[in-house]
Amino acid sequence: MTARLLRTTLALLFLGLLGVLEATTISCRNEEGEAVDWFVFYKLPKRQDKENGETGLEYLYLDSTTRSWRRSKQLINTTKSILGRTLQQLYEAYASKNNNTAYLIYNDGVPTSVDYSRKFGHTKVPEEGYDYPPTGRRNGQNGICITFKFNQYKAIDSQLLIYNPNIYSCSIPATFHQELIHMHQLCSRSSSSEIPGRHLAMFQSAQGQNFLHFAKSDSFLEDIFAAWMAQRLKTHLLTETWQRRRQELSSNCSLPYHVYNIKAIKISGKSYFSSYQDHAKWCISLKGAKNHWTCIGDLNRSPYQAFRSGGFICSQNWHIYQAFQRLVLYYENCS
């Protein structure tokens, strides 16, 4: 077996996508540091009431070895969190100057910079070692990590082009240039490829879990949920995105498959929070639908988000679906 067949990669969707490639095994990691096929997390918002006392650093997580949400033992800003454990592999490779590792890190607002652009993909990953920004405490956040084999990365390479990422740190060694054409060009800022308005791709994780990835450029000026995802997945969708006041889209029942805005998230018992406190971006099939889809990504339901590139990665994994379905307290019907 060649070294190329042994290569694996991980794709991280925090509010976007980070790609890492290495000749040795890089994988998503759980809080114990063990390799897992995938994980999803939900960082809880900072609570003002003394009874709950959340700091904005606690999170729920679910991985390929579990069946439901678990409360984190670690805070999300520590190196022993699932994000800290997973990203440590990148930082160790970077520190060792390992030329077998390729990576791209991008952000619409580069860390430590005051510049911000709605044009680029909306992604948050610190550049120098693991850290979690204080600005990320106030609101909820969510994300997904998936371990992929190298043979999936040609498709990921094409999807990344559509995102038009604002890359601020990258390294694509020459060994990858022939197969990962767009990553190499994006890293060197020499890309002249025509960017499609949108594209749908299928990925398979290292252990065989199937995922659909919806990617849109800033030229696709429609609500990605109503105009594309719900109709393509053939299911009514419940969507949870940041409901910023006077900048949200209403629930949409004008097309064959409807899109409803979730208005509140239930953590447990009487503990809940409003979508106004949540920067998480996800959707699920309406309860009772034949197709049990869960999608996690980086776009809000807002008129302004039509001008942003980004996308969602979707799974029919029953445990992921159940975990998110149980979070829905109530949603907005169509008027």
UniProtKB/TrEMBL annotation:
GO terms for cellular component: lysosome. It comes from the Eukaryota. Its EC number is 3.1.22.1. Residues 1-23 form the signal peptide. It is an enzyme of class 3 (hydrolase). GO terms for molecular function: deoxyribonuclease II activity. Its main location: other. One of its GO terms (biological process) is apoptotic DNA fragmentation. It is found in: Lysosome. It catalyses: Endonucleolytic cleavage to nucleoside 3'-phosphates and 3'-phosphooligonucleotide end-products. Keywords: Endonuclease, Glycoprotein, Hydrolase, Lysosome, Nuclease, Signal. Belongs to the DNase II family. Hydrolyzes DNA under acidic conditions. Does not require divalent cations for activity. Participates in the degradation of nuclear DNA during lens cell differentiation. This is Deoxyribonuclease-2-beta. It comes from Orycteropus afer afer. The lineage of its organism: Eukaryota, Metazoa, Chordata, Craniata, Vertebrata.
